[in-house]
Amino acid sequence: MSSTKLLDRHLASWAQGDAEREVISGLVRTICGAGAQLSRTISRFDLVERGSAFGQRYDADDRANSLLLTAQDIFESTIKDLPVSVMASALREDLLRIDPAARYAVAIDPIDGSSNIDTNLSIGSLFAIFESDGDDLFDIAPGSRLRAAGFMFYGPQTHLILSCGDGSYQFLLDPSNDRFYGIGDRLQIPSGRREFAINTSNYRFWDSSVRHFIDDCIAGADGALGEDFNMRWNASLVAEAFRILMRGGVFLYPGDSRPGCQDGRLRLLHEALPLAMIIEQAGGSASNGSMPVMQLELASLQARVPLIFGCRERVTEVIDYISGKALDSGHFPLFANRSLFRS
Length: 343
Description:
Layout: H1 7-15, H2 19-43, H3 45-50, H4 60-79, E1 86-89, E2 96-97, E3 104-112, E4 123-131, E5 146-154, E6 158-163, E7 168-174, E8 179-183, E9 195-197, H5 208-219, E10 230-232, H6 237-247, E11 250-253, E12 266-267, H7 268-281, E13 284-287, E14 304-305, E15 307-311, H8 312-323
Parallel strand pairs: 1-3, 9-10, 9-11
Antiparallel strand pairs: 1-2, 3-4, 4-5, 5-6, 6-7, 7-8, 11-15, 12-14, 13-15
Helix pairs in contact: 1-2, 2-4, 5-8
């Protein structure tokens, strides 16, 4: 791998000696270093955490909670030593205030896909770097302050997807030295892929327009879309995003009629915004069903939103269903209902 571009060199090339970019590069480099540490911890977690109890059965929820807390501690202990104004974590209800004189804030989801922990399936971490003192995230759409975003995907290999606003790029962790190496050129989401990702177990709770879109996908070549689709669902946002970056298609997580789910389940600050930046920088689109995610305002630290992302043509297709543009009112008279993609 000696001829492969290191993450350090990629960041140095992007910064080109600019003082502010150098600060952002340092933040990215250190956060990714914490991700490499977490990757190593995950691979040995049961051996280290359980010690002499290894081999005994234990509660899956306890294991997941223990790993969540470990991940939170790794990132928090790393970020609190950085020139960061505040840290917002998906596992904290409040902002962790660090340096009031610092110019940048960090939002992080230490472990995404925690329901996969006990079955050894894909999980990951997301992070976003904002130009902000923390409090002003609530003044305007925080997407306008987003300067860098990334996620680490802990699968059979540990991958990093990173954007500093000049495209999205893929890196692979070498566990022998905890360094990330670049793979390929700037990412571009493939178009034309007939795949969708959604949790169909919630079908009965969806808005009628969402059900209609999924029904037409499932109907295949004989349906209104005239194409045969495949469905994917990993129960891990980073795994879904990684697959779409590599293969194309569309991901949907709508709001639904269950208590607490009307406005979606994914956090705007820690999940939707970093993914929106990465997806858009790879030529795709990310929306809440009525407007781009990058234009949404932050109502609260843990505000949740519906989310659609993927290649532009598929996202536009879904939005057409939600708005009623694609629907035949005679066949489907409920299209005027409030869409559960709208926050």
